[in-house]
Amino acid sequence: MAGHSQFKNIMHRKGRQDAQKSKLFGKLAREITVAAKLGTPDPNMNPRLRAAVIAARQENMPKDNIERAIKKALGSDGENYDEIRYEGYGPGGVAVIVEALTDNRNRAASDIRSFFTKSGGNLGETGSVSFMFDRTGIIEYDRSVASDDAVLDAAIEAGADDVISSESGHEIYASTESYRDVAKALEAKFGEPRKAALIWKPQNTVSVDDETGEKLLKLMDLLNEHDDVQNVYANFEVSDALMAKMGG
After folding, report:
1. What is the pTM of this model?
2. Sequence-separated contacts (24+) of 184-191 with Cβ below 8 Å
3. Mean pLDDT, consecutive 10-residue segments, the chain of 248 residues?
4. CA-CA distance, 175 to 41, in Å (whole number)?
5. Which domains, from first to last, does the chain contain?
6. Which residue from 226, 157, 224, 225 is spatially nearest to 188, judged by alpha carbons?
7. If I label 2, which of 8, 95, 102, 123 is the partner at 20 to 30 A Cα–Cα?
């Protein structure tokens, strides 16, 4: 249960790049509403809603906004959003998965396809790249919550699959089946995590040169800035120098 978090520099870029709080709050609210509509409006009984609320709190989204998003799911006049997963290849043949919540499937597909095309990549069929990723649960804690050994012991006891501890914090991975129970057990021991969600984790990552990396990071930014896009995952690594140059 150890190793290097190979795709961390890409995963965390979104939060640093998205300075437009209102747009970010809009995306968070949309996920809260959809999660509440698909399950119960009680975060303690609805793992997806719980994850969405935690994400909103981490971004300092006001409590009123969170409650309003949940109430919106209970009304009959709220918008209906479709959940869509897009898969494709970016520059350098890098695999990319895009998760979207949209009220206009045609608009979303057209925009996302154009982003891929302009970057030198191409959008594929569903399933064209997801086989290169594992669908898994992740629970994250700040470095200060406990020692590496304490987190590792707690994770093993809870039934986690893997733990990666680094300067940026502790990442605990669990299967989709055990994720909810693992998250509950760890929260009882360490308190609310900074993140708890189901993600697409690349099985392997590929290193790209700075020229290709710059094109890929620009594609990531274009996708993340789109109103309909909730999450973007990719299986590439770039140099620290490029991350610094791009403001990552």
Report:
1. 0.86
2. 185/154, 185/157, 185/158, 185/159, 186/139, 186/141, 186/154, 186/155, 186/158, 189/154, 190/141, 190/145, 190/146, 190/151, 190/154, 191/145
3. 44 51 87 91 90 91 93 77 94 95 94 96 94 95 95 96 92 94 94 92 91 92 92 90 75
4. 24
5. 6-74 (1.10.10.200), 82-131+203-247 (3.30.70.980), 143-193 (no CATH)
6. 157
7. 95
